Each structure stands twice: as C-alpha cells, then as structure tokens.
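Notes to self after the Tuesday call (sharing in case useful).
The group wants a holo model before anyone commits to mutagenesis around the pocket. I volunteered. Ligand is nicotinamide-adenine-dinucleotide. Logging inputs and output together so the record is complete.
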Amino acid sequence: MILVTGGAGFIGSNFVIDWLAQSDEPIINLDKLTYAGNLQNLASLEGDSRHVFVRGDIGDAGLVARLLAEHRPRAVLNFAAESHVDRSIHGPEDFIQTNIVGTFHLLEAVRAYWNTLEAEARTAFRFLHVSTDEVYGSLEKDAPAFTETHRYEPNSPYSASKAASDHLVRAYHHTYGLPVLTTNCSNNYGPYHFPEKLIPLVIHNALAGKPLPVYGDGQQIRDWLYVKDHCSAIRRVLEAGRPGETYNIGGWNEKPNIEIVHTVCARLDELQPKADGSSYATQIAFVKDRPGHDRRYAIDASKIERELGWRPAETFDTGIRKTVRWYLANQDWVGAVTSGSYRAWVGKHYEAGQ
Ligand code: NAD
Ligand code: TYD
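Result:
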C-alpha cells in the first residue's frame, strides 16, 4: 500500500480517486483537514475499504511513525501543504509550520521507518515530494522555460517554504540515502479546486453575478495543467523515476491571466448563457496587484517526456471545457465550500480517532 498526505485537498483528492480507479493497491490518506481539506471530495470512496482516511498532521511524528509501522507502505507521497500565495502574504506562519517543519518531521519519521525495512523493501521504497514551479521565481518574457537545473529564487512566503521543503528532501537523499523523488509542477486546474484560486473563483463569481477580480494588468503568465494529467505524471514518476531526481511537470500551456479569465467567460457564455444575453466578461474588474507578484512561470517538461515517456493528455481547450462543465454540474459542492457548510459535513462524517 501507499501513504498519501494531504489527500483531502484539491490535487491529493484527485490523486486518490484516480489511483483507486486504476489499481487495487490501498491508500492510507493522512490529512489535517485544514480549511482546504474537504472530505466531500472523497465522497465517491465512502465504504471503499481500499481507502483509509486518518485525520492528522504530517508534523505529528508519533502519529506518522505509528501509521508507517502499522501499514508498512511501499511509498509515501507528500501532497500536504499550505498552498495559497495570497494567504501566505497575509499570514506566513502556517506555511512555515506545515511546509517546512511538517515536512521535516515527516521525513524524520519516514527515515526511521525506512531504516527498519529489509534490503529489498529499502531499495524499492520511495518518498515522493510534490512541489511547485514557483520555487524557481519569476521569468522575463522571453527567457527560456524553467528546467530542473534552474536556480531556486522563491519570491513569496509560500514559494520560499516550498523551496525549503524541497531542499530538506534533497538533503535526506544526499545525506541518508533516502530514495526520494521531487516533482515541480505548474498551476493545476480541474474538479475540487478550492474557489479561492483563480479559475474556480472566476467560475463561481461569474455565476453569482459578482466582479471577476484580475490582479494588476492581468498580463502575468502561468503554465496550466489539468489536474488529472498531474496525477498521471505523479504515478509515472513513482513508477519509474530515478531516486534523487527532480522532474518538472507542465502542460505546455503558457497563458496570461486575462486570457484565462476570458476563456472561462467564453465557455460559460456557451454552456450557461446569461439571461440578459451579455457576456460574463462584462463582470471583469481589474483590482490592486498582489504584492511581489511573479510575472511569469513557464515549465520545460521535456525531461519527464524524454526519460519517462509522460506528456499531458489534455490541451487547455479540452481541460477547461471539462472543468467548467464539472463546476456547472457540481454547484452543490461549490455551495458547500463557499458557505462553509463543508466543515459541518466533516464533523458529521468523521469521528475523532477513526
Ligand atoms: P490544497 O491546499 O488544496 O490541499 C492541501 C491539503 O493538505 C488539504 O487537504 C489540507 O487539509 C492538507 N494539509 C495542510 N496542512 C497539513 C498538515 N500539516 N498535515 C496534514 N495535512 C495537511 O493544495 P493543492 O492545491 O491540492 O496542492 C497539493 C500540493 O501540490 C501542495 O504541496 C502544493 O504545494 C503542490 N502544488 C500545487 C499546485 C496547484 O496549482 N494547486 C501546483 C504545483 C504544486
Ligand atoms: P492562483 O490561482 O492564486 O495561483 P498562484 O498564485 O499559485 O499562481 O493565481 C493564479 C494567477 O491569477 C496569479 O498570477 C494571481 C492571479 N489571480 C488574479 O488575477 N485574481 C484572483 O482573484 C486570483 C485568486 C488570482
């Protein structure tokens, strides 16, 4: 079996669902259920004995040690993190605690467990750390995309905390020989994306008749990857990645934010036109820029293609269409998140100690 952390969040829950759709190998899912953790994301797995959910902190070394000793996973995949740049600007402390201190405690518990394994299991074991392209900092307009050897130049408390965790993971390989893999991925989008992030926020505000906030001039560029493609890349890296290596994962979809917002509006105009016949784009509102806003991220994902044969299956056009359709079909999920009632759902469906 494998142990996944942060599997009730956006990418983690997509990963858990996809994993169990492709394999019968069980998953232990350790998640603290912060505001970003939502057990409703995993509702389709209720009653599925292949999925064991445990509420807890990656920084709780005792709990992690117990889980490892009891379930003896062949791999640990670390998705757990504080992930929102704007929140890291308003309050960096949780980012330091979870992303740096938490990852450190997790690594310590994993190292101790790994040392107890028999030779064959030790060699086969993997610690896969899910990171971001934001650790590389901001690119000039015409600069080549980030490769795995690009210098780390994190600019926000979020990216700095992720960079620190990447360095710890690297050091545990170099110093202790722990078989680690690190993936640095670009911006994900798709089902179960918390509506504080750009794409789900725009969909939600558009349908609610609210302004669509575009920071600054909207010309900041991101690379966008459909979340299911990220999940398939992680499965591939886990399967065939070389210990100690890092792999960039991207969608080959560099786009300015304003174009993303216009595309979402166009899909909504097509799939759920406004009663008055006007476009959702009329709701776009340029607002004050994010402090220290990185201008451009771009991922060169040729290493993972060359070495592991992975390429994204979705284009931005196909992925965004699926995403908008998913949000239109899952307004109950959006309503529960935006009203906060998903927290009550957690209380009802989860009993302490489970
Ligand atoms: P998310 O915020 O949606 O989910 C994070 C999950 O981690 C939540 O379920 C939360 O409850 C859990 N968590 C937080 N602190 C924890 C702790 N101390 N112990 C246990 N669980 C804890 O994040 P996401 O967007 O799903 O991102 C997952 C990972 O992927 C993160 O490491 C993030 O840095 C990375 N990443 C995200 C993106 C993106 O576009 N969302 C892109 C590249 C990399
Ligand atoms: P976000 O989804 O927060 O991801 P990240 O900051 O990790 O890239 O933001 C994506 C881009 O969209 C980023 O350049 C900030 C911008 N943005 C807006 O213009 N308006 C918004 O309301 C949000 C949330 C983000």
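Two things stood out.
The pocket of nicotinamide-adenine-dinucleotide (ligand 1) is lined by residues 5-6, 8-12, 30-34, 36-37, 57-59, 79-83, 98, 102, 130, 132, 162, 185, 187-188, 194 (CB under 6 Å).
The CA atoms of residues 103 and 165 lie 6 Å apart.
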